[in-house]
From TrEMBL:
GO terms for molecular function: magnesium ion binding. Keywords: Nucleotide biosynthesis, Signal. The keyword Membrane does not apply. The keyword Nucleotide-binding does not apply. GO terms for cellular component: cytoplasm; ribose phosphate diphosphokinase complex. Residues 285-371 form the Phosphoribosyltransferase domain. It comes from Triparma verrucosa. This is Phosphoribosyltransferase domain-containing protein. Residues 1-17 form the signal peptide. Coiled coil: none annotated. Belongs to the ribose-phosphate pyrophosphokinase family.
Length: 426
């Protein structure tokens, strides 16, 4: 169908070009005939006085002989250029129409939602805000007395509403126990004759454990990838949507039955920044700058890059390596925060360099052992006016004090729907 449309556009373009050439030729010949008639010897005697008749006649003959014809090389070159531009414009319009139709079709897809316990609030928001597209089926995540899983999904009885459908599984791997339980559910779903499975895992906790420097160390990023890749096949690969994966090459650990779909939370931050006076984006290291700096070009913000330098006794000091923050309102951007030591040191350096205000954004607020309290008001690391995070780790963000506190949580709901439909990537 697409080839037919393109061929039809090409035929229309050629037809319009031939009609334009024919019209131009007829108009040009009429002009030549009129010019020749006007300056013919019979007419010059009536238009010019006798003394000027001969010179006027010679001038008219010379001018007529110099009149450009429609068949000149320049005319055809110009027409061909116009035809080529017209064809390119029409093809561009056809592509936009095709993409619009494709996107409209994607936005009509319906999903049956199964969610991990920590993601049940997100599942309810999706089904409540878009009831025609998302249907949420609750799951009982129980345990037997011996500690093994006793899981029961709704939507299968008395009527089976899951088989033959597109299933959206909202995952949260915040502990090993819940992770294994969720893999059990994904296996059952894929064995239930579903049409497709999309797993939304906003935060991959093993993204930082991807290398082995000492034999015997377990690279859990690789082992989790093996688990995903070994999932049953329902006819199409399982789509694994992950936001701001710490190590981007981890996507290539997946194979066969699972494919990574990498997304980013930066658009959420950019939308939020438009209502703030922030005019500078700082990165705690060169790696973060290489990854995220290009995403802020359209905002025209000053870019500042920090980095760690080694000092005496193997101590590390954060310094500004590129850019100037004096008098600027800054936001430090990184993919995740654990204890937040690097962010804190970076914030102090920016303030010492003359920054008017310093804020922070991370996609994933991990904060083990409630280390977020140190950044809130009254904490020993309270150096940021605003600390933006997303709810990719809901078990942590549900504890953050918003409103009067330093933290502000940016909701992923709309971003997930957009990325689900558009297959946008970072």
């Amino acid at each position: 169908m697409r080839l037919f449309i393109v061929a039809l556009l090409c035929l229309m373009s050629v037809s319009n070009s031939l009609l334009f050439i024919k019209t131009a030729c007829v108009a040009n010949n009429k002009a030549n005939n009129k010019y020749a008639k006007l300056h013919s010897p019979s007419s010059t005697s009536s238009q010019y006085p006798p003394s000027a008749s001969r010179s006027a006649s010679r001038s008219a003959s010379f001018s007529a002989s110099r009149t450009p014809r429609c068949t000149s090389r320049y005319s055809f070159s110009q027409l061909n250029s116009q035809a080529s531009n017209s064809y390119e414009d029409e093809v561009d319009v056809a592509k936009k129409i095709a993409y619009s139709n494709h996107l409209s079709k994607r936005r009509e897809m319906k999903y049956q939602i199964i969610a991990a316990p920590a993601q049940e609030p997100l599942a309810r928001r999706l089904s409540q805000q878009y009831p025609s597209r998302f249907t949420y089926h609750s799951t009982s995540w129980g345990k037997f007395p011996d500690g093994t899983d006793n899981i029961s999904m709704s939507g299968f009885s008395p009527l089976n509403l899951i088989s033959g459908e597109n299933v959206l599984f909202l995952a949260s791997f915040h502990s090993n126990d819940v992770t294994l339980s969720q893999f059990s559910v994904m296996i059952v779903l894929l064995q239930s004759f579903i049409d497709s499975l999309t797993v939304v895992l906003p935060y991959s906790p093993v993204g930082t454990m991807e290398r082995v420097t000492k034999e015997g160390t377990v690279a859990t990023a690789s082992t989790y990838a093996h688990l995903f890749s070994s999932l049953p096949n329902c006819g199409s690969p399982t789509r694994l949507m992950v936001y701001d994966l710490h190590t981007l090459q981890n996507r290539f650990y997946l194979h066969n039955n699972a494919i990574a779909s990498l997304q980013t939370t930066i658009p959420l931050l950019k939308t939020r920044l438009k209502s703030t006076p922030i005019n500078c984006v700082a990165f705690p290291d060169d790696g973060a700058a290489k990854r995220f700096a290009d995403l802020f070009i359209d905002l025209g913000l000053q870019i500042v890059i920090c980095g760690k330098t080694r000092g005496p006794d193997n101590t590390r000091t954060v310094k500004i390596q590129e850019g100037d923050v004096e008098g600027l309102n800054c936001v430090i951007v990184d993919d995740l925060v654990q204890t937040g030591g690097t962010l804190y040191e970076c914030g102090k350096v920016l303030k010492a360099a003359g920054a008017k205000s310093v804020n922070a954004f991370v996609a994933h607020a991990v904060f083990p052992e409630e280390s977020y309290k140190r950044f809130d008001k009254g904490g020993d690391r309270c150096c940021f006016e605003k600390f933006w995070v997303t709810n990719s780790v809901p078990t942590i963000t549900e504890k953050l004090e918003e409103g009067n506190g330093v933290f502000e949580v940016l909701d992923l709901t709309e971003a997930i729907i957009k990325d689900l439909d558009e297959f946008s990537s970072m």
